[in-house]
Design a protein that fits this description.
The structure is a single chain. The chain has one domain: Rossmann fold (3-Layer(aba) Sandwich), CATH 3.40.50. Helix content is 37%, strand content 16%. It is built from twelve helices and eight strands. An eight-stranded mixed sheet has the order 1-2-4-3-5-6-7-8, with helices on both faces. Strand 5 (99-104), helix 3 and strand 6 (124-128) form a beta-alpha-beta unit. It is globular.
Length: 307
């Protein structure tokens, strides 16, 4: 697979992305891949290799990550702004093309509303372990287990978060955030690649901006001091509003059921929001599904694309 590294300026922000495959080969759609925290474009290497044989594939570094610019303004990382930004990015690098979108984690948090509000841009959507915003907010309000699973976010928005994540060769990221990744997946070479990405100037801060700007952080169960529990963008569950995010394009959800960040109840009631939804569960997989079961992911996505 011949990967091209490219850059484009979107709304004054430089975005690094990789692409492979032939442009409009056999009149096939262009497939975009959006990664999550704390990764970068390379998380999709197995998918890029597989799908570049039939499609043009594009995987950006999200703003704040790796070789893309790292805006300082927190408002840039609000979901509405990110949605508009990626709509502009897709239209800039694949104008007038049919587009399929594949996304994981924070990439999925962007992909859901992007597809909802720009359905003329996205023809098919694939989500890997990224809760639908309406379902996630519902679970944050009603499900104590989801709030417990989201407790780690308070560590990521704390004042000392950057120092904490960089300490001891980024031990926190490897041994807490990626701790559920199956044995032998996180090789020594992959660790070195991640370290190179995370150690870049401004990278950790850029990655954390997404959490600082997110709208659904409940008070921490661990804090008795109200001033501590209200630090950052924290609101009482009674003040949370379930967004109306409706998807009108065919959607495939691939879900590792051992996810440390999301309860399985996030998959319930999705037919209310997603008109054409197929859910494939992976009982033994964790949040890091594309790393652990790349062949099965590719197979399921291929069938969905061709249907």
């Amino acid at each position: 697979m011949a990967i091209e590294h490219k850059n484009t300026l979107i709304d004054g922000v430089n975005i690094h992305y990789v692409q492979a495959g032939q442009h409009n080969a056999h009149q096939k759609p262009t497939v975009f891949f959006l990664h999550g925290f704390p990764e970068y474009w390379e998380t999709w290497s197995a998918q890029l290799k597989h799908f570049s044989k039939q499609y043009r594939v594009i995987a950006p570094d999200l703003p704040g990550y790796n070789l893309s610019d790292k805006p300082n303004e927190l408002s840039f990382f609000s979901v509405p702004n990110l949605v508009k930004f990626f709509a502009n990015f897709i239209q800039a690098v694949a104008p007038n093309e049919e587009v399929y979108l594949v996304a994981h984690d924070w990439g999925g948090a962007i992909a859901w509303p992007l597809t909802a509000f720009f359905p003329h841009i996205i023809q098919k959507l694939v989500i890997l372990n990224a809760a639908h915003p309406s379902a996630f907010t519902r679970e944050m309000i009603n499900n104590p287990e989801q709030r417990k699973k989201s407790e780690y976010i308070h560590e990521l928005i704390a004042e000392n978060a950057i120092e904490k994540l960089l300490a001891n060769e980024c031990d926190y990221l490897f041994n807490k955030m990626m701790s559920t990744m199956q044995v032998n997946v996180l090789t020594e070479q992959k660790k070195q690649d991640y370290l190179q990405v995370w150690r870049q100037s401004g990278s950790i801060n850029g990655m954390l901006q997404y959490y600082r700007a997110m709208p659904q952080i409940a008070p921490s169960l661990r804090y008795s001091n109200k001033s501590d529990s209200k630090a950052g963008p924290v609101k009482d569950t009674g003040d949370m509003v379930i967004p109306n995010i409706r998807i009108d394009v065919p959607t495939l959800i691939l879900w590792g059921e051992q996810d440390q960040a999301f309860v399985r109840e996030n998959l319930l009631g999705l037919e209310e929001y997603v008109k054409d939804c197929t859910i494939k569960r992976f009982p033994q997989a964790s949040h890091w599904l594309q790393h652990e079961y790349p062949e099965q992911v590719n197979e399921n996505v291929s069938v969905f694309f061709e249907r």
